[in-house]
Every structure is written in C-alpha cells, then in structure tokens.
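If your schedule permits, I should be very grateful for your opinion on a structural question. Kindly check, if you would, that the fold set down in the tokens agrees with what the sequence suggests. Thank you for your consideration; the sequence and its tokens are set out here:
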Amino acid sequence: MGYGPYKPAEDTFLLADAIKRYSNKITLEIGVGSGYVTAEICKRNTFVVGTEIDKKVLKDAQTRLKSLNFDNFELVLCDGASAFREECFDLIVFNPPYLPSEKILDRTIEGGKEGIEVTRKFIEQSLRIISKSGSIVFVLSTLSNYNKIIKRLKRMSFKVRKIGKRKLFFEEIFVVEALKVV
C-alpha cells in the first residue's frame, strides 16, 4: 500500500527510531501523515491517538494501520491537539513542518517565517494535555529558529535533550525530548 502525499522521509525515520525507547504509554501523535510513526508507536504503547487535518490522509493511515493488525489506536480528524481534555497523555509525538517560509503554501513542509510557528502551536496545545510527568517528543531542523523553541521549553521548566540526530546535505535534523519536570 502506498503512502499518499505524506511519504516517509529521513525525518520520519529518525523520529520512528527515537520513539522506540518509549513503551506502555497513553500516546498522542499530532499529524499522523502516512501512519509510519504511528505504527512504531502502536508496537510498544498501550493506546495511541493520532490526529490529522486532512480527511483522506487520515482514512489512508487508518486503513494502513488496520492492515498491519493494530487495534490499540484511534484516529481523529482535527487541527493539532485541539480536541482533547487536560493531562490525558503520557507521551506526545509530532514531526511538524519546519522549513522557514514567508507564507505557508505547503503545510506538509513549511513551518512559517522562522520555521517554528507550527511547532510552537503544537507545543502550546501539548502543554494543556500532557500528564504531570509526561514527555513531548518532536523533530526540529537547523534551518529553523529551533533555539527559540528549546529556550522557551527550558523557561517553562522542561528538561530538554536531543535524543536523535541526522546530518543531511544542507541541514541537521534532530529529535528533541521535552520532559515535564514535576
């Protein structure tokens, strides 16, 4: 089965590898896209909720996950994480669009003027729904103003560390874990 418009790439594989360290969590993936990362999360975690803004992409991901015999997931059509109650997830995962652009014309890769506007939105939504000792795991790029995100999380008393990285021709992408400090 093909992957539709959201084809797994280097950032997808990097995130999928990084989240293998988490297990037995109630997990949210914001923006399931192809479902590739969702499948990796389903292998190790109790229950996975995934969101997607595109109805066709959501249906394709659901079909793919069912064909892999996963039954510990639910996919929701919504923007980001806007549909959830407070402190209901132990782990929140996302691979946001992170390339800087004046206007967001391609929402699959463009993250706003500094490349972090979508990431910032997902983090803001995550703050409300992450459990007291939960982790937020996401992808950043050296092409974006990533230090702004890291500094903001540290100011909010999150312990922030890189848990994976990959050097590409024109950038370095890395996975960040932001652990909520109780």
Notes: The longest helix spans residues 55-67. The two ends are 43 Å apart (CA to CA). The domain at 10-180 is CATH 3.40.50.150 (Rossmann fold). Strands lie at 26-30, 47-52, 73-77, 89-94, 99-100, 110-112, 130-141, 158-167, 172-180.
